[in-house]
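Morning run. Coffee first, then this:
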Amino acid sequence: MQKELTINFESIESYDHLDKTEKILFDKAMQIRDLAYAPYSDFTVGCAILLENGEIVTGSNQENAAYPSGLCAERTTIFYTGANFPEVKIKKLFVIGAPRKAISSVPIPPCGACRQSILEYESKQKEEIEIYFASLGGEIYKTKSIRELLPFSFDASYL
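And here it is:
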């Protein structure tokens, strides 16, 4: 028997349609993206996380000549958050990525490893994390939970 799986997400037309908090997260992710260390791929990504206490944590991708020793922006940011704010819940995660010198309007989602890492923190805090992903211009996609982007996810409940 074949079944169908539906992924729910919201398409936000542009930066101008974000609320005040979302614009701040977008701006912070865009700023930190400029600090990405990506000499090999030239694909730069910035991430901004909003914590329940109002703190915003940012990070960017960090590459390494000994591939795959580098780390994506999402994991750089969420691991730093987990280490420095272990008891504070994550409310929103905003990620922006694109080739360094290209104008792209295709929203860039977290990779599979980042999705699994975000799932770990969502499961740990027992509360959904809103995920926003974008490029330098155009639409922004929003999901209410990483589980929308990681169907049939694996978490500690299977152990």
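The CA atoms of residues 123 and 156 lie 8 Å apart. Good start to the day.
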